[in-house]
Amino acid sequence: KSLQEGGYITGYKAIVDPGKAGFSTLAIVRILSRTDKAKKNSGLLRRLKSHKNVIELYGLYGEHDLLAKVRFRSNSELFDFTNTFLSEQEVADYQVYITVCTHKERADIPI
User: Fold this and answer.
1) Greatest CA separation for the chain
2) Which of 1, 23, 95, 98 has the lowest tally of Cβ within 10 angstroms?
3) Local structure of residue 78 (DSSP, 8 states)
4) The pTM is what?
5) What is the distance between the alpha carbons of residues 34 and 101, in angstroms, rounded to a whole number?
6) What is the pLDDT of residues 52-95, one digit of tens each?
7) Closest to 69 in 3D by CA, of 77, 85, 58
8) What is the C-alpha to C-alpha distance for residues 87 and 39, in angstroms, rounded to an integer?
């Protein structure tokens, strides 16, 4: 209860097996934006944040600006995402890494 009151617990959720739910394609996408890296409200960032298949999105230092973890029902859906969504003018370059297996994935933190 003290964790809730202290704001450490922000909610509760069911953890669904993505494969059993039909989302068998998991990919990591590194994105290089054409826009100013400091622009936190770029159109690209807003669209990625609201895309239903983008499940995690991080800002990066280094060769790319963003890292997205995406889940799709098939490689074909992922292909459509990269050929439409990532082919827009705001994207200078991207690299897609399709995972072949998951060795470890967790949603909790070790406290």
Assistant:
1) 48
2) 1
3) H
4) 0.83
5) 32
6) 999 999 999 889 999 999 999 999 999 999 998 888 788 989 99
7) 58
8) 20
